[in-house]
Amino acid sequence: MLIKRLFDIVAAAAGLLLLAPLMLAVAAWIKLDSAGPVLYRQRRVGRNGVQFLIIKFRTMHASAEDAGLLSLADDARATRAGLLLRRHKLDELPQLLNVLRGEMSLVGPRPEVPRYVAHYPPAVRDIVLSVRPGITDWAAIHFRDEGEILRRAADPERTYVQQVLPVKLDYYVRYVQQRGLATDLRILLHTVGALLSGRPAPATPHGAAPVPGGRHAMHAGTPAAMPANARTGRRPRLRLLAESRLGPHDWQSPLIALLRGLAALQVAAAHLRAQVFPGLSTLQEPPLWYLGLSFVTGFAHQAVVVFFVLSGWLVGGSLLDRIGTPHAIRDYAIDRVTRLWIVLLPAFVLMLLLGLATGELDAGQARLADASPWSLATLLGNLAGVQTMAVPAFGGNFPLWSLAYETWYYALFPLLVFAMRPGDTRWRLAAAAAAVALAFCLSAGIVLYFLVWLMGAAASRVRLDIGRVQRGACWLLFGALAVVLRLQGQDGDVDGRALAPDLLYSAVFLVCLCGAGRRDPAAMRPLAAAGAFLAGFSFTLYVLHVPLLRMLWAYRGGALLSTGDPASIAVYAAMLAIVVSLSYLIHLPFEAQTARLRRFIKQLLPGRVGSKLRAPAAGEAG
């Protein structure tokens, strides 16, 4: 099934991307906990009987297979780390790589070793092996305590072959007969629920005999956790809103905050990997773990596009809400300048200190008006947003190119708003002429990607009412596009050649965001808290990660990490954690005080401060 395979690719890639920090931490723990490799590979039987190597985190000591293939609860062969990993199924996470390689699916019959496949009845074998094996299925959910069942058995091998395996095969056959995208989504939801609750699912979509010695009571019927009136689909309805303000029930607010934070983290992780590891193209046979790391940290381009879209949504939508109120443009200008400078000024001071410490900057040689990365003219040009046009990025901090784009979008958008609003024709023509003149002075890249920013601003006034299945399909397509762009090498700077796919990518992303729907605020609280934390210092992380990486680079003496040693990934994870932690600490006296600084400046100005505005969404850049 093409749709199932596409879903597998997108979900597995997204899972690897989101879970990369956790997987890096687990890998480091395993390496420190016991001798042996981080990953464990075992031969399993896949689709059409083709054997492959399944990948797991190692949970047992070396040569543990010599004592048998079955794993029991509290197995003496398990390491300290392995006991916890197996209890929470974290050892299965590397199988996302098997999914990307096409050897497995997210949902499907669990793959067995050849020894136990030999016990399959011929008719059952043909059915079960007609599909890709999966990471999870109904049997995996209900047999989460399989190790405990076998531990209590007098003969674990015989109990497994004669009692457990037949029930599993019944699950497998019925899954193959009833498989579909809706079934897969249901199983994935139950898997997450079982892992979080520590209990197996309450029911399955088919009957089966209980397992002797187990806790499983398997009854006919649909999974109980799925409400009977769950709305899996409805006719889409598009609504144009009078304002872009988000209420406490709107799902967009925590999503925007979380995505902004993750985008900044992705950019930092990508640049760190590029700096401390050799280039992937220079390696003849890169190890599997490095291929995975290179893939999941290769979405920096897509992350910057997400930044532009969300900036348009937040900044453009905010201006549309306040336009026509007293001091709207004045307050808008204050908000934009403070947003940029409260982070840029301390960032430039830190960069100067690092430049002196590393010897890149000579304190005895004054540089005022030249075009060097450390001159005063370059610093002022970066504050004015003309880096990459009139001056280079200050201190060689190359991500600052995107701030030039943002700066001029902040100027272009009010001009377009005034040109399109009803009013004096002369003022409207003057605003339009100013926008056109300004566009002619800017680079082609800035002007072209203003379309992406404008899409975000326009979408802030749109709501799309869609069902759960349609919503899931939109996010699936968004993830698929990200993976396709990544595989096509779309991971560099923005330019005219990348505009068309990026516009499509942005459009699908905005459909997902506009159709995010509404939720109970209590249910959104954990996600909102995580998003607010990440987004709160995302700008500082974006601006400061390059000089902080160079500081760590200088501390290490510029030595590249070895791709031949899996322990290098632990060093990489530690360096990333240091950069993120320092960014968070630096943001506390600066970026975290943005709202307070804005209020202070507005109180000093004459006239009534603009009408009371909404509280910004979690992590809002406005």
What is the element layout, followed by pairings?
Elements: H1 2-33, E1 39-45, E2 51-57, H2 80-87, H3 95-100, E3 105-107, H4 114-117, H5 122-128, E4 134-136, H6 138-142, H7 146-152, H8 156-178, H9 181-197, E5 237-240, H10 252-276, H11 288-296, H12 300-322, H13 328-358, H14 376-384, H15 401-420, H16 425-441, H17 444-459, E6 462-465, H18 468-487, H19 496-514, H20 521-536, H21 538-555, H22 568-587, H23 594-604
Describe this structure in words.
This protein is mainly α. The chain folds into 2 domains: 2-197, no CATH class; 238-604, no CATH class. The protein is 58% helix and 5% strand. The protein has helices spanning 2-33, 80-87, 95-100, 114-117, 122-128, 138-142, 146-152, 156-178, 181-197, 252-276, 288-296, 300-322, 328-358, 376-384, 401-420, 425-441, 444-459, 468-487, 496-514, 521-536, 538-555, 568-587, 594-604; strands at residues 39-45, 51-57, 105-107, 134-136, 237-240, 462-465. The strands form 3 sheets. Strands 1-2 form a two-stranded antiparallel ribbon. The longest helix has 32 residues, at 2-33. The chain is globular, with a radius of gyration of 28 Å. The two termini are 44 Å apart. Residues 200-234 and 609-621 have low confidence and may be disordered.
Please tag this protein with its features.
two-stranded parallel sheet, 622 residues, single chain, disordered C terminus, two-stranded antiparallel ribbon, globular, 6 strands, mainly alpha
Helix content: 55-70%
Molecular shape: globular
Structural class: mainly alpha
Instruction: Give the count of structural domains.
Output: 2
**Main beta sheet strand tally, sense and closure:** 2 strands, antiparallel
Helix count, DSSP H or I runs of 4 or more residues = 23
- Gap from first CA to last CA: 44 Å
Q: Proportion of β residues?
A: under 5%
Write down the secondary-structure element order.
HEEHHEHHEHHHHEHHHHHHHHEHHHHHH
Rounded average pLDDT:
81
Question: Strand sequence of the main sheet, in spatial order?
Answer: 1-2
CA radius of gyration: 28 Å
Number of strands: 6
Which stretches are low in confidence, meaning pLDDT under 50 for 5 or more residues running? 200-234, 609-621
